[in-house]
Amino acid sequence: MSIDRITALLEKLTSGTCTWQEKKELFSLIDQVDDPQLKAVLETAWLQYNQPIHNLSDTTSRVILDNILQRNQPTRVLFIRKWRVAAVAAAAALFIGISIYKFTGTPTTTQAPVAIASNIKAPATHKATITLSNGQLVPADSITNGQLVMQGQTKVVRLASGEIVYQPQGQHNEVLFNTLTNPKGSQVTSITLSDGSHVWLNAGSSLTYPVAFSGRERRITVTGEAYFEVASAGDHTIPFLVNIKTNQRDSSLVTVLGTHFNIKAYEDEPDTRVTLLQGSVQVDHQRQGIRIVPGQQAAYAMGQPINISTPATDQVVAWKEGLFAYQSSSIAQVLRDAARWYDIEVVYAGKVPGDTFTGSIPRTATLTELLSILQMSRVRFRLENRQLTVLD
């Protein structure tokens, strides 16, 4: 009986005649069915929902389908014949839209497709550059596998994997600084510092560091978003310090040796967020200092005290694993991340929408695929060249 009711409600949803109460009923019923039944319902839904704008690549389809069907039992696997993957997953994308209704708590109306003048693909290459100590700018991909440049007694190489590695060859007579810049519209880039610490930089981020560490501390500066795996110092007494810089905020993060953490500190974000996955770090902001433990996140803004929370850490670092991942996140947050990844400008024709989004989308998806899913809320878009206008 519930399957018949789900099918009927899906037909109403795709035709734009489903009431808000019926949408809530639909989501509740979907949570009660098992995988084989859900597969059949998804396929039926796709037959009603077959619009070109919702066609997804096989890779995108598989990941979206996993996120929907495994949201309560991560070990479950639903096997689908290859030729049906795109169709079924497109219907799964519809369920992501339903999850938007669930978390916004407000009615929505059927919207017209995204107005698109041209599609924008996900970044396919690294566009990172290294600013040397003398100001020279070196493209990080100028050599596929081998030495990029010498900085004092440190060799800068680029591995076949694309990773940049600093290899000290002797003692340094002076401290030289380099800056790795990963612009908007670039794939995630990674670097191994001279002490063996590994850093990943998201699009629209930069890292300033000495080419070789010396003295009683290891200090670097980051803007944007970075994930760190800090190597232990030789004598276990040399702290690793990260200055977090934006035009509005200037704070520092002091970590103990051998720790994994994520920093998100973009200029257009409302706050700075430090999330610890392993080890221990102390966050110093203005006159406040708090030490956090694995699983905790410290968030703070100018003039505000540090707030401690326990987010889903796999979602915090999903960018490093090739995913956009959100839990009741605002559409505005999703679009800020999209602006950096696809190198677009986002403008609002009216007020910023209050809708939220829950789900995971591969960062290999095109901008059109991302917007097609987001538009299942009450938000509409217009994309012209590299400017995305949020209509309402």
Task: Give the helix/strand layout.
Elements: H1 2-15, H2 20-30, H3 35-48, H4 58-69, H5 85-104, E1 115-116, E2 129-131, E3 137-139, E4 146-151, E5 154-158, E6 164-168, E7 177-182, E8 189-192, E9 198-201, E10 205-210, E11 218-229, E12 240-245, E13 250-255, E14 260-265, E15 272-278, E16 281-285, E17 288-292, E18 297-300, E19 307-309, H6 313-316, E20 323-330, H7 331-342, E21 345-348, E22 356-362, H8 367-374, E23 381-384, E24 387-390
Parallel strand pairs: 1-23, 6-8, 11-12, 21-24
Antiparallel strand pairs: 2-3, 2-7, 4-5, 5-6, 7-10, 8-9, 9-11, 10-11, 11-14, 12-13, 13-16, 14-15, 15-18, 16-17, 18-19, 20-22, 23-24
In short, what is this structure?
The chain is of the alpha+beta class.
Describe this structure in words.
The structure is a single chain. The chain contains eight helices and 24 strands. It is of the alpha+beta class and 392 residues long. It has two domains: 193 residues, Phage tail protein beta-alpha-beta fold (3-Layer(bab) Sandwich), CATH 3.55.50; 188 residues, Jelly Rolls (Sandwich). The strands form three sheets. It has an 18-stranded mixed β-sheet that branches. It has a four-stranded mixed β-sheet with strand order 1-23-24-21, covered by helices on one side. A hairpin with a 5-residue loop joins strand 5 and strand 6. The longest helix has 20 residues.
